[in-house]
Amino acid sequence: MIEASKQMTASLEVPVVLPGGLTTLSASSMLQFERCRESFFRNRIKREREVKNIRMAMGTAVSNAVTSHLIARRDGERPTSSDLVGRAVAELESELRGAFCTAKERRTGLDAVRAGAEAYAKEVIPILDEAKTEVLAVEREVRFRFPDTEWSVVGYIDIETAGPVLDVKFGKRHKTAAEADLGLQPSLYILGRFLEGSDPSSGFAFHSGRSTTPKEGGRWRVVPEDIPSPRTERQLEELMARIAGTARAIARCAETGDWGYSTEGWWCSPNVCPFHGSCPAGGLR
After folding, report:
1. Is residue 115 one of the residues assigned to a domain?
2. Is residue 170 a part of any domain in this protein?
């Protein structure tokens, strides 16, 4: 595990430990806290189980299947597009165990995952081959911590290349260039690599897939299309400050017992949040 330099973190105040036995922060846990502290408290502190919905399961299934496919190619195997589709379907079946979805949602999800995996083989693999993209690792852990703390920040890079970091997303809409440029998850990956000694200008790109049939064009896009989104050292220093601020806010919430409720957004609805029905603020939105 990498420790951030004291020069980089000298002005940042961070708690030595996090409450509730937390030992890590990630992009997903930070975003959960920023969007809804009640959800963070129940999921991360009280350890209440977060039941997956069909959209979450589909995204995970396609991402897992793609990364497995690429690592097999890297290791000299010759997996076919049928292999990729079969893996995606198997991953979805596994993800749906214990998930909340109707029989119709399950059928629709399976059809979308089949189509998405098949399209990835046709639309994205040739781009990687033409660019002679060298896949170094998939699902590689990057982990770092602030000096003198007992918790760490962790992320798992979907696809690591000699150039940009690539992340597979499969959902109802395509990711945008702004999300690649400014998103917390991409920035955290680049920060982790930077602390390991990599150049942050190598950047980041999404492999963005649509689960619904697009009116025109293919199901997949590389976002951004031209130059992968880089980061500057100043941006990474600001990210360290954001992480430190989140850690302090979590500690304060635990000290006061006042966690608060969601900001307004798509995440605060019974179709997305598994805690919405029993949330004291849920019925007010």
Report:
1. yes
2. yes
pLDDT confidence of 217, banded at 50, 70, 90?
confident
Q: How far is CA 64 from the centre of its chain?
A: 12
**pLDDT at residue 284, as a whole number:** 53
Position 216 in a domain = yes
Helix ranges restricted to H, 10-124? 27-35, 37-40, 54-74, 81-95, 103-123
- CB distance 43 to 65 below 8 Å: no
0.70 exceeded by pTM: yes
Q: Could you give the CA distance from residue 21 to residue 12 in angstroms, rounded to a whole number?
A: 22
Q: What phi and psi values does residue 242 have, to the nearest 5 degrees?
A: -65, -45
The CATH number of the domain holding residue 157 is 3.90.320
Radius of gyration of the chain (CA): 20
- Label the pairing between strands 204-210 and 165-171: parallel
Tell me what the mean pLDDT of segment 80-107 comes to.
Answer: 92
Number of domains in the chain: 1
Nearest to 254 by CA among 6, 12, 64, 21: 21
Measured CA to CA, the distance from residue 49 to residue 105 in angstroms comes to 21
Write down the residue that tokens 């165990």 correspond to.
97
CA-nearest of 25, 92, 88 to 55 is 92
**246 occurs within a structural domain:** yes
Q: Which domain covers residue 148, as residue numbers?
A: 2-252
Class of residue 155 by CB neighbours under 10 A (exposed 0-12, middle 13-18, buried 19+): buried
* Average pLDDT rounded to a whole number, residues 240-246: 97
Q: How far apart are the C-alpha atoms of 248 and 253, rounded to whole Å?
A: 9
DSSP H or E segment with residue 159 = strand 152-161
Query: What pLDDT, on the 0 to 100 scale, is given for residue 183?
Result: 96
Residue 8: Cβ within 10 Å count: 16
